[in-house]
Amino acid sequence: MIRDTSRQDTKIEAAPLWKNPKAIKSTLALGFAVAFLTWGINAWHSTGSVDHTLSLSRINIAQVERGNLVRDLVVQGKVIAANSPTLFSPAQGIVKFSVKAGDSVKAAQRLASVDSPELSSQLAQEKGQLNQLSVQLQRQKIQAKRQQMENQQKADLAEVNLIAAKRELKRSELSMEKQIISLLDFERSKDDMSRAKLEYRQAVQNAELEKESLTFETQTLELQLSQQQLQVEELERRVRELDILSPVDGTIGSLAVTQRSAVAANTPLITVVDLTSFELEAAVPENYADDLGLNMAVAINLGGSELPGEITAISPEVINNQVIARVRFTEAQPQNLRQNLRLTARVLLENRNNVLLVKRGSFLDQSGGRHVFRLNDEQQAERVAIQVGALGLRQVEIVSGLQEGDQIIISAAEELESAQLVALKK
């Protein structure tokens, strides 16, 4: 008979867990693993969203503050003569210069003369016509006096005939009352009286009408003479202008033609430069052309000092992506100015008070002024969308996105191009 195996097994009592070395090791290993995993997860949460790490020595940081922004523009320019008139030939002829380029001249000094035979001949003809009209006017006045005397004589004779007819009629009336003359003779006396009245009245009227006609003809000749006199005076003025005089004190800039050249009317001959009055000709970039305006203030840098000026003219055309503006000195002109001297000027475009400002930096070029990296309390810089306003020479206006006291990165770095959050380290 086969017995069971109950007698072959030996019952072993289970030992407590704290007395088991293997269990203790396993528990400790599991605890360390959980702790390390928790630390890794926390570390990942704290640094996992940081895109890059930048050293503070590689960046420039500026603080947003409130103040006044002067929007200006620095331009380069050259000093030019404000007054440099060009003189032209008044008529066709041969020009003869009395000066050379570079000579100093005074106002009203003769610079050149133009010999114009055509203009001189025309003046002589017009003067002859003027003398002829003057003689005709004198002849007309004499003729008018003679004609008026003849008309007055006719009127006087008609008046004498009228008086005689009145006397004859009165005699006929007396004779008719005494029956000395016939009725036919009396009627004839009355007819003679009526004829004499009519002739006298017509003679007086003809004399007055003839007088008006002679006066009108005399006035017509006087008007023709006056008109001819104006033409002669105009030609005399043009002949006087054949002597070209300097309009200002200055220097001869250039001669447009050579000596004894044949020139047409209105041909440029000579340029006079007034060295007592200068202006600055500044080249302004095209994108600032809309911001320019007349009488806009300009600070001109001369030898380290700033001189006040203002814009007096703006060119309507764009040349080489630039607009030319004329700037004059508003105060006493410096004595050490010379033509073609290169100067720097600062155009004061705009002045804005009590706005948010930040120092200008290369972040404008990198981000286009659409966003910046603002520093937080955890040694990090986060991307923030902003809107910039006026751009000054040293500062930029912040319209939105930042507050007073914020610190931002104003320098450019490759790590900032696509990052959202950047860690900073010393």
UniProtKB/TrEMBL annotation:
Keyword Coiled coil: yes
Sorted UniProt keywords: Coiled coil
Coiled-coil annotated residue ranges, if any: 123-155, 190-245
Keyword Coiled coil tagged: yes
Superkingdom of source: Bacteria
Subcellular localization: Cell envelope
InterPro entries registered for this protein in UniProt: RND_pump_MFP, UPF0194_transport
Similarity remark: Belongs to the membrane fusion protein (MFP) (TC 8.A.1) family.
Protein name: Efflux RND transporter periplasmic adaptor subunit
